[in-house]
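Forum: Protein Structure Q&A
Topic: Joint prediction for protein chains with partners

I've read a bunch of threads here and the consensus seems to be that you should model interacting components together rather than docking separate models afterwards. I'd like to see that in practice. Below is the full input, 877 residues plus whatever partners are listed. Could one of the regulars post the assembled result?
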Amino acid sequence: MIFGNNRVGRPVGFRDHLFGFFLAAAYIAILIATADNLGYARDEGFYFRASETYAKWFDILWDDPKEAIKKSVVDTYWKTNNEHPALVKSVFALTWTILYKKLGWFAEEGTSFRFGGMLFAGGALWLLYIWGARARSRTVGLVAALLFALMPRIFYHSHLDCFDVPIATMWLFAAYAYWRSIQQGGVVWALTAAVVFGLALNTKHNSWFLPFAVIAHLLVSRGPTLLRDIRERRFPLPLSPFAMATIGPLVFVGLWPWLWFDTFERFLGYVRFHTNHDYYNIVYFGQTYWKPPFPRSWAPMMTLATVPTITLVLFVIGFVSRAYARLGYLLVSRAPRPEPDRASTDLLWALGVAVAYAPWLSNSTPIFGGTKHWITAYPFMCLFAACGFELVAKQVRTALAAKLPSAVPSRAIDVAVGLCVLSAPLAQTVGSHPWGLSNYVPLVGGAPGAASLGLNRQFWGFTTGAVTDWLNEHVPKGGRVYLHDTAWDSWRMLQRDGRVASHFRGVFQPHKADASLYHHEEHMQHVEYQMWVTYGTTAPAHVGVYDGVPIIYVYARPDIAKPKEK
Amino acid sequence: MKPRTLVTALAFAVPVIGLLELGGYFHFANRAPSPEAWEQARPAVHEAYQPGDVVVVAPRWAEPIARWKLGGEVFPLREVARPDVTRYARAIEVSSMGARSPELEGWPVDKESHVGKLVVRTLRNPVPPTVTFDFTDHLGPSRAEVEFTKKGRTQPCRYNARAPIETRGYYSPPPFPAQRYQCDDGPEHFIGVTVIQDDRALPRRCIFAPPPGDGGETILRYRDVPLGKVIRGHLGIQWIMERDRLGSPTTLRVRVDGEDVGQAVHEDGEGWKPFELALGSHAGKEKATVELRVTAPERKERHLCFEADSR
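Posted by a regular:
Agreed with the consensus. Here's the joint model:
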C-alpha cells in the first residue's frame, strides 16, 4: 500500500503520556532558558497590567469570597483589558503570584508571567504527540510535535504572555476531545469537549470558528446517513456538539467574572471590539496596507515565507496521501477501500486547517499580526506533515531494505530521514531567536531576502530586548529614552526585571529623549526622520542587526552616541 | 516510470529538500554583510568620498547599517534625504549581495573596489546639471523673508535660529526644526527645512510651508536669486497625512519679479511630485526676486513640503 494505512484508534497508554509530558517539559525548559534576551512585545505589556489587576482580585477571592463576587469589586478588577477573555490572563496572574511572589522560583517577574503561556506551548506538544500516536502511530505523534515546536514563529510566540499559542493549544484540545467523544462515544468525552470548548472560548476569539469546523465535520461525516438514522429511530448525532453548545458558553461566562454582571451588554461589547477592530498597518511586498481591500494572497504567502519549507512539503504529502487513502477508491478502481473511521479523523484535521485560514478568503479581514491569526491551523498541518513523514520514511526504508546489510535496523533509516527533515527547522528556529518575527525561510532568501521583497520586518516593538545592553552602557543615570513602539508596561517590565536600568525614564517624543529607539516598520519611517532632525545626524549610535538586516536603531545625543573607550 | 518508482523517487527527494533547506538557511543567514564587514569598508568609502558626493547604498534597506558604520560624515542629511540624484555630479555606491541602485542606472562607473562582501563604486553623472540656486539650502534671513496673508491682512513670520526642536512621534507632522520662521497662526504654521516621509517611505528634505486658513497664502520671498532656465522641484505631504486622500489640493505658485511663471498643485495620493516651470524671459537673470506662494482651500493637515532649485 503506497499511500499509508487507514487504521485509527490505537491504544495509547501511560507511557505515551509520560513521553508527551517529557516533550512538554523539555520544550518549556528551553523556553524558560531562552526567555531572558527576548524583549517584551506591546501586547505583553497590556496583559502584564491586566494580570496583575486580576491577581489582586484572586487575593480577595482567597480571603473573602463573598466580597470578591460583588459587582463593584468585580468591576474594579476585571474592567481592565475586558476586550479579551479571562482564562489565560488568569493563568498568568496565578503563575506570577505563586511562582514569583510566593515561591520565588523565577528571578524575573516577566518570565513568571510568561510561564503561563509556556505551559500552553508545552501542552500543545503533548497533545500533538498523543493525538498523532492515537490516530496514526507514535512516529506521527512525535514528528508532529517536533515540527510544531520547530516553527520559528511558534517558538517566538511560545515565549510570550499572550493568547496566540494558548488558543492554538485550546483549539487543538477542544478538537481532540470532540474527536474522542465521537470515536469512543459516551458522556465523559462529550463533557470534556464541552468544558474545553468553554475554556477555548475563554482564551481568545479564534475559538468562535471552532463551531464551524464541528458543524462541517458533522455534516460531511454524518450527513449521508442522517435520514436513515432518523428513520430507524437512532439519534443521528453524537452528544458532544450539544454539550459544547450548551455547557461551553456556561464555562465561558462562569470563568470570566467581567461577564457575571450586565452579561449581554458586556458580551456584545466584547464581540463588537473584535468585529469592528481597528486596521493596523502592515507592509506586504513593499506596500503598506491599512484598510481594505487587503490582498487575499497574504495568508498563504506569509505561510510560505515563514513556515519551514520542508514542513510544508511534508504537509502536502501527508494531506494528499490521506486524501487518497480516504477517497482514492472513488477515483481509482484498484485503490483500497478505507477502513471505517468513526471519527473521520482526516476530515477533522483538514477542517482544522481550512477553518483557520478561511477568514482571509475575504479581502476585508485585517492582515496585521503577522502569521499568528491563523496559528490554530499549524498543529493540524503538523499532524498531516507527520503523516507525510511516515509515508516518506516507509518508502525510503522499503527501497533500501534489500540494499543495506541486515545489521542496519530499519529504525536507523527512519532516524536518518528524520534528521534530514528536522535539521532545517531546528537550525532556523535556533537562528531566529531572539528575532522571532523578523525570521523568514530560505525560500524567500531568509531575512535579507524578505527585506528586499518588502515584507514586514517586525511588529509589537519587542526588539528593544536586543539593545538593552547598549542602553545600559551608554545612557547616563536618569537618562530619558524614547520608547517608540514598545508599550509602557513592556518597558516597565524590562526595568522591573533589571534588564534596563531602573533610573532610565521613558518618554514619548524623540526631542525629549537622550536616546531614541526606532523599531523599523515602513509606515513609521517618519519617526526615524524625526530623530535625524532631533540629533542632527543620520547615523544611528547603534543598530540591532539580524542576519545582516537592520531591525532596531538607536539614535542618541552626540555625547552619548560616541563609542565608549574601553 | 512506474508509479511505485516515481513514488520512491519522490520519497528520496524529501530528505534532500530538507538538507537543501538547511544549506539554504546557512547561505542566506550569512549572505548579507555583518556590521563588522561594513566597518571594514569605511576607509574605502571615506577615501572615495568628496564633499558634494552622494553615497547610495544598495540594497536600500541596508542603509541604516551603512550610516552607523561608515559614519554620518558621508551621509549628510541633505544628501540622504535628497529629492533625487539628478543634481549630483558624482555618486559613491556601496553595494552588497549583487544589488545595484536603480537611482544610478545609466551612470558610468569610474572606479570599483571590493572590500569583503561589499563593492564600493564611484559613478559619474552623465548629464550633470548646473544648479544656479537651491531654495531649500538658502532658506534663511540672509536671502529670504516669509509672510502670510489672512483675511486680507499680511503678517510677517519671525525667524528664529534657535527654536526648540519638536517632534510628535507617530502620525504627526514632520519635525519642527531649530531654524524656522514662526507665523502667528498656530504652532504648526512654521516655515523651515525639515524631513518628510514620502509615499515610498523615503526621506525628503524640504521646506515645510503649510498654507494659512481662510484661503490665504504663505509667501516665501527670496532676494537676489541667480536663475537658470527653469525652476524645478518636488512637492509632497507627509505620507501618513495624505494617504487617506481626504484633504484638499495644495498649490505652490511661483512668481519672478512680480510675474507669475506657473504653479504646481499637489493632490493627496500623488506622493513626492516633481514639477518644472520654464522661466521664459526671466531665464538667466543674475538677480531676481522669486516668490513661492502656498495656498489651499482648507488648511487641515495641508502640511505642504517642497524643494526647488533653478538650473
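The first strand of chain A starts at residue 282 and ends at 284.
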